[in-house]
Amino acid sequence: MSAVPGTQIGRYEIVARVGEGGMGTVYKAVDKRLGRAVAIKMLQSGHSQRFEREAQAIAALNHPHICTLYDVGPDYLVMEYIDGAPIQGPLSPEEAVRLAIQIAGALEEAHSKGIIHRDLKPGNILVQKASVKVLDFGLAKHEHEYVGPDGSTVTQTQNGLIIGTAAYMSPEQAEGLPVDARSDIFSFGLVLYEMLSGHRAFPAAHAVTAMAAIIRDEPAPLETWPALQQIVARCLRKAPAERFQNMSELRAALEHSLGRPEGESGPIVKRQPSIAVLPFANMSGDKDNEYFSDGLAEEIINALTRIAGLKVIARTSAFAFKGKQEDIRRIAEALGVANVLEGSVRRSGSRVRITVQLIAAADGSHLWSERYDRELTDIFAVQDEISQAIADALKLKLAGSDEVPARPTVNPEAHQAYLEGRYYTYQMTVTALARAKECFERAIRLDPSFALPHIELALRAYYQTLFQNVRPRNVIPPALESLNHALRLYPASAEAYVLRGTIHAFYRFDWESAGEDFRRALELNPSLAAAHQRYSNWFLLPTGRMQEALAEAKRGLELDPMNVITRIGEWFVLSAAGHVQEEIECAQSMLKLFPGFWIVCYEAATTGWLRGRYQDAISAIDDGLQADPGNLHLLSVLAAVRGAQGQRPEAERICQQIEETAAREHVQRFDRALAAEGAGDMERTYQLLEEALDEHEPVAIIHILLRRKELASDPRYQALLRKMRLA
């Protein structure tokens, strides 16, 4: 249908034609009764279903940055008239963020109503008097399958049907796959990229070429604030699980890029600083001094966490780039930071030379550099000087002297033994862990009042129960004594509180004490990734506080993104909360990041088993067994998968193999229970699960909780919860 100026449509008089889209033509008109300008969208033939969907979508929304629907006719929509122009760049970072926050708010409102836009592009965002309006919900999709507690929506689009504007599609949209709210987040990233740069992220002359680039390529780096570079890069991740998971999270990141808390108005202030400390290069020529250069960088990381307002990436993630010739900007983007500290250490006898430089990741410029030539006895003073210099360079302030905890030791030899022990701990081999134990015991002999080695010995015991089939009853009671002793020596240790809270949870089922210890750890060190991860997994998840558990898991991942434990911690919560699509994507992402690592393969196989994706499970198990043949954890989940596939004889054979091993050596009850379930013996399964709780096996406890929804109606499962004091 078309109209010319002067045409009457009900009480509306057409003034001028202002635009045309795939579904209809838009006219400026006058509402004769109310005397106001309106926009009328006239339907083209063949689009009645989408036209009705657009009307329903807009009618469901009420937001200052969404075009308002006034009236509906048989073949037209009457909407707010916006005397503006499509958004375009390049804009200053401040202006781009200000407008982007408005767009994010509009999409947040739509997603909260289960509405996905699916055609977000500059032409559908009009700027009027420094304010934006999002319009054209003609391709909007109402969710009808699932709305996650975090606000993410999953909706099914007919496979193979590609709709939207090619240059602004998400990869899944371009492939005709099901989309959810995270598809809009990808399109938002493309729009923000264009607002900042003035050109498209994937410039192409043809639609097919554009879609191919979106699926396959990465955009050219942006020249803007590091925080904005990271936000755009995260929006444009190919895998939905690696993007922001909802618009609320994305809007908060934009708010923080301006340096003010989410939702707070007022003048723009300095953006929140962030830093990663890379492993220091060992320039001594003696490979045995590697522990010292690594340990010094780690100690500086720990000192920097005292700086209020500074995001500090954990050691595990920062050291993931050790020995790799990566560009600083790529490292900063991967870790989500604006600044990088790198350095070198040359040690000769009792003297040490430390060279450090602080680099702004955006342009590679040096914010500050210094060289220190000192005696080893001055090493503590050097650490403090470096931390203070960084604080000054970033115009921050160290915690007040009354808030800074006393140094755990003043004995340089004990300190070096401790650093050496930490160095071996991170190698995670049986031989290295044995050497680490010797180093920590030597540190304690050199300084009996040194608390940190006691904590490390307790941590070693915890890892033995997780990864080495060691019975908790044999190692956890002395570990708890070590932690209590360490806290008497050093009450400001967040690490000790985190580990004690973990033991309260899995060894005592004392959830109240666990919660108190985790909260105390976060008070002492909000930048400690392990505190967020274990608070999520060992308190919030067991007590059913899933929203908080997911938030804490994501915060831990933000602080330590390359750590396999924080990745698995997020997977645990997604699985337990029933966020199935995100759980699957998280498992797939872990397999890419940590190929062949048995525990990642184990968790990915568990996802495949629980969600009926048996071939995915078998593939993950094969990868894990190739790297670690005969791994009983992987074999147990293989038995469960074979049983679920109806291959009962194969499941029984694996179950028998595991039981024969258990007759010769200790095998975790949970592995035996999983194999028994695959073999179809549920009575034996529940008996072994009860024994696993008697043994206080950490893995058993978490995996029992993963099936809370699935098995809730089984009285035997309820008995397990009562045993854990969680009924």
Summarize the structure in words.
This protein has about 725 residues and is an alpha+beta fold. Among the domains are: about 70 residues, Phosphorylase Kinase, domain 1, CATH 3.30.200.20; about 170 residues, Orthogonal Bundle (Transferase(Phosphotransferase), domain 1); about 130 residues, ABC-type transport auxiliary lipoprotein component (Rossmann fold, 3-Layer(aba) Sandwich), CATH 3.40.50.10610. Helix content is about 50%, strand content about 15%. The chain is built from 29 helices and 20 strands. Strand 9 and strand 10 form a beta hairpin.
Structural class: alpha+beta
CATH topology of the domain at 85-257: the name is: Transferase(Phosphotransferase), domain 1
Characterize the biggest β-sheet. Answer: 6 strands, antiparallel
Distance between the termini: 63 Å
Helix content: 40-55%
**DSSP summary, beta strand count:** 20
From the spread of the alpha carbons, the general shape counts as globular
Q: Order of strands across the widest beta sheet?
A: 1-2-3-4-6-5
CATH homologous group name of the domain at 85-257: Transferase(Phosphotransferase) domain 1
Rg, rounded, reads: 29 Å
CATH architecture classification of the domain at 85-257: Orthogonal Bundle
